[in-house]
Specification:
single chain; 500 residues; alpha/beta; six-stranded mixed sheet; five-stranded parallel sheet; 46% helix
């Protein structure tokens, strides 16, 4: 399996090279030349596999230069119970209501769905360096809207031959997310707050990646960049697995028959999580409509409904900060496939986005998007109301991101009367967003005058659930990272931190 840039420049590369480099030299994203297929008979065979076995099988279709035996031990280590995850299912499926099920993706060490990929990526990355005979120290650059940063820091903590620098928007993450990052341990971890929003951090990181001066200085020091964001194929590929697992789990329970369709709903900002569902569908997993859920920053909703991508709009800070994004990087990969791999056209769209802040896709591409996706959004009031309504109806506590997804599922069902079962990606533990969840369940007065750890205990008592140990233990951890930079100073800070 070879990989190409979505923007068409440069030669094809191996999976290991794509993972090692993180982003293509032309600024595009590495993506598989072809999408492998799974037959119905093969799908039935997969139904008997554990999560780790399934991961090794699916990943072997994409990472063909990795030995199957290596993939098996990597996923076994990444998804070990109880060292990494608190359940052998890794991503358990829970019934929410009639025809709707939650795919719980937050049972890893940082209580967010990013753990699924970022517990595995360090193994893939270090093996990639071995396979490509690249002895340079790997410097991981990450822009985060909240969850990726902590998951990447935890995954790469003290991994030999690596350093990791995470940039997060200073006022754009929850307090619990901030505490998770600024207290991060590890001799190779660095965390920087950016005076700006996530798009500023993400744009800055991409610019550093392709800055020839920084790259030259890095090479002189025996280092080279890579990424742990979902722009890196090694971050995205593991996310395909849980859609297969969710489908097969519902098949095992008798909710669906093999071959019957299953709709998937995903709260998303950077489009990586729902892109993984699209790729699983393209492989042959019988998924129906892909329901894309946005918060008040509804750039994806508007794009899917109009064919016009326009980031020139107000930016809202919401209770679902991991979706507070106006530039959705992984959409570029979808456009590459839906435009029949027209890299020239994709480059033109991305250039227009950079120059003008918007672009319009052609009618053929737009028609394909409309056929595949349904898009909706939930504002702040609807998000909090959904948290309360779902808890009252089912006793299930949703975090704000998953609540956005649940609200959009309700919109979809009302608009279509589609009776196809829906699998909703539950992306984070509600305890990571304790203030917002408490505000929804008990009113604003319940939050006033309390610190983060008092809020954790208060939420635990209210819903009669234990606080995840990873969050409870933050109380004893000192702040280790205090660096703050302006939005246009990322390159300067990177050079200072690395001694270039």
């Amino acid at each position: 399996m070879n990989y190409v840039s979505t923007r068409g420049a440069g030669a094809t590369v191996s999976a290991a090279t794509a993972i090692r480099q993180g982003i293509a030299p032309d600024g595009g994203l590495f993506t598989p030349e072809t999408v492998p297929s799974i037959t119905r008979d093969q799908l039935e065979q997969l139904a008997g596999q554990s999560y780790s076995e399934l991961a090794a099988t699916i990943l072997s279709r994409y990472l063909t230069d990795y030995q199957p035996a290596d993939l098996k031990w990597m996923v076994a280590k990444a998804y070990a119970v109880p060292e990494k995850f608190d359940t052998a299912a890794v991503t358990p499926v829970v019934k929410l209501q009639e025809h709707t099920y939650l795919l719980e993706l937050w049972h890893g060490p940082t209580c967010a769905f990013k753990d699924i990929a970022l517990q595995l990526l360090p193994y893939l990355m270090t093996k990639a360096a071995e396979l490509t005979r690249d002895s340079k120290e790997i410097v991981i650059l990450v822009a985060t809207s909240g969850d990726t940063g902590k998951a990447a820091l935890e995954g790469f903590k003290d991994v030999p031959g690596t350093r990791i620098i995470v940039f997060f928007p200073e006022d754009g993450v929850s307090e619990m997310q901030r505490l998770q990052m600024v207290t991060q341990e590890g001799q190779n971890t660095l965390v920087v707050a950016v005076r700006g929003n996530f798009d500023d951090a993400q744009t800055g990181v991409k610019q550093v990646f392709t800055d020839p001066t920084v790259i030259e200085k890095l090479a002189d020091k025996g280092m080279s960049f890579s990424s742990a964001n979902s722009i890196n194929w090694g971050r995205l590929a593991p996310q395909l697995v849980y859609y297969f697992y969710g489908y097969l789990e519902l098949y095992r329970r008798g909710v669906i028959k093999l071959g019957e369709r299953l709709n998937v709903a995903v709260p998303t900002g950077n489009f990586g999580n729902i892109l993984a569902a699209y790729l699983a569908k393209t492989m042959g997993l019988p998924l129906g409509k892909l329901i894309c859920a946005s918060n008040a920053n509804k750039v994806l909703t508007d794009f899917i409904n109009t064919g016009i991508y326009n980031r020139n709009r107000p930016f809202y800070t919401t209770s679902s900060p991991s979706m507070d994004i106006l530039i959705s990087s992984n959409l570029e990969r979808l456009l590459y496939y839906l435009s029949d791999r027209n890299a020239t056209q994709v480059t033109a769209w991305m250039d227009s986005l950079k120059r003008t802040g918007h672009y319009r896709v052609d009618q053929a591409t737009f028609s394909r998007i409309q056929e595949l996706f349904y898009a909706g959004y939930a504002d702040e009031a609807e998000t909090l109301a959904t948290i309360k309504a779902v808890y009252q109806d089912s006793g299930v506590v949703l975090d704000p991101h998953t609540a956005v997804g649940a609200a959009v599922v309700a919109q979809y069902l009302a608009a279509t009367a589609d009776q196809t079962p829906v699998l909703l990606a539950a992306t984070a533990s509600p305890f990571k967003f304790n203030a917002s969840v408490l505000r929804a369940l008990a009113g604003p007065a319940a939050v006033q005058g309390h610190n983060e750890f008092e809020l954790l205990e208060q939420l635990a008592r209210l819903v009669n659930q234990p606080v995840p140990a990873a969050l409870q233990n933050l109380k004893q951890k000192p702040v280790r990272h205090r660096t703050v930079c302006e939005r246009d100073q990322l390159a300067v800070v990177v050079q200072q931190l690395l001694g270039l």
